[in-house]
Amino acid sequence: RYNFCAGPAALPEPVLEQARDEMLDWHGAGLSIMEMSHRSPEIVGVAQRAEATLRDLMGIGDDYAVLFLQGGASTQFAAVPLNLLSEGGVADYVNTGQWSKKAIAEGKRFGNVNVAASSEDTRFTTIPARETWQLSASADYLHYTPNETIGGVEYFWVPETQAPLVVDMSSTILSRPVNVADYGVIYAGAQKNIGPAGLTLVIVRKDLLGKADARCPAMLDWKTAADNDSMYNTPPTYALYLAGLVFEWLKGQGGLDAMEVINRRKAEKLYAAIDGSAFYANPVELQSRSLMNIPFTLADANLDKAFLVESEAAGLLNLKGHRSVGGMRASIYNAVGEDAVDALIAFMQDFERRNG
Ligand code: PLP
User: Which residues in this protein are found as N6-(pyridoxal phosphate)lysine (predicted)?
Assistant: First the structure.
């Protein structure tokens, strides 16, 4: 069975197998990793190895802190302004979809937010051209969403700005290489390409630490986490352990360069199948089509239900589109192999033959 869920998403099979084998007795300790103190050398070692492997995978420099937190990307929507938006300052945001909107709404609770550009007028099927962005003269940061999970819209460029770039990479992180040095803050919920839900990753340039509002809760202040090696309170130890296994698996696959080659091949195949048929359609402008989340509609929405029932019976799970856009969505994160995409395309073609 193949899992196309947008998140929590498929995990690599070898990772799940290793976790199963180590579940009751981790490395001969006689305990499950879940039962160990986060102060124990075992868990501290797991956390340190996970961080080191991630630094290696993404090329994260020593001038960045890597934080393993909780609360999901949604909590970071608030943590970002609490850490970076100064009294009387302004933050620029770009609105390219539902997740941008949520980040903007949360930012507005804490200070001045300038929506510098929006693609709402195209129903979030485009990214506003950089020349049209109305940036503030001296924003504390510029926030955008490199991949909109619901709309399936992805940036394949990095805006040049004065202000530090703060990005919600939840659904694109680890799918291809990025130049970490381009960003002030990268954050992501783990439940797509990192590991199980419950873990949140924040990568923050160290000069941006220590600027939090006085009323910022300790748990949301990135400096608290950085000063305590992400162990200010009890971290999600099991999720961290699994994320570490995923990072090792990615290294074994050849790292992010290799993942990009595979991910591009998967996405190109699926877009080609959609574009090659009058029965299926994807509304996103060509240059901004997501490699990870591919929404598509059927020419006759009355067939949606049959498509979902039959695809599930064929072992193709979780293809229902987000309730805000309807239709279908195939999320093809790192753990979704090319064989899964091939199986989906074969099903789509067969369904079209029978119903088109
Ligand atoms: N941002 C993006 C781009 C997402 O795809 C999601 C979840 O799907 C979120 C934020 C919310 O993440 P969380 O559920 O970890 O708060």
Answer: 192
The best mutation among 77, 106, 167, 171 to test binding of ligand 1, ranked by most ligand atoms within 8 Å of the C-beta, falls on 171
SS3 content of the chain, % helix, strand, coil (to 5): 40, 15, 40
**Rounded Cα distance, 219 and 231, in Å:** 11
* Ligand 1 pocket mutation pick from 4, 99, 293 by most atoms within 8 angstroms of CB: 99
223 catalytic per annotation: no
Task: Please give the number of the atom of ligand 1 that sits closest to the Cα of 189.
Answer: 15
Residues 6+ apart with CB under 8 A from 111: 81, 85, 86, 87, 89, 90, 91
Domains of the chain, each with CATH number or no CATH: 14-252 (3.40.640.10), 255-355 (3.90.1150.10)
Q: How far is the CA of 149 from the centre of ligand 1 (A)?
A: 8
Q: Identify the DSSP state of 322.
A: P
Edge-to-edge strand ranges of the sheet holding 64-69? 64-69, 200-205, 185-189, 165-168, 141-144, 90-95, 112-118
145 lines ligand 1 (CB under 6 A): yes
List per-residue pLDDT tens for the chain, 356 residues long.
Answer: 999 999 999 999 999 999 999 999 999 999 999 999 999 999 999 999 999 999 999 999 999 999 999 999 999 999 999 999 999 999 999 999 999 999 999 999 999 999 999 999 999 999 999 999 999 999 999 999 999 999 999 999 999 999 999 999 999 999 999 999 999 999 999 999 999 999 999 999 999 999 999 999 999 999 999 999 999 999 999 999 999 999 999 999 999 999 999 999 999 999 999 999 999 999 999 999 999 999 999 999 999 999 999 999 999 999 999 988 889 999 999 999 999 999 999 999 999 999 98
CA 85–ligand 1 middle distance (angstroms): 21
Token look-up 């909780």 returns: 70
Is 249 a residue of the active site? no
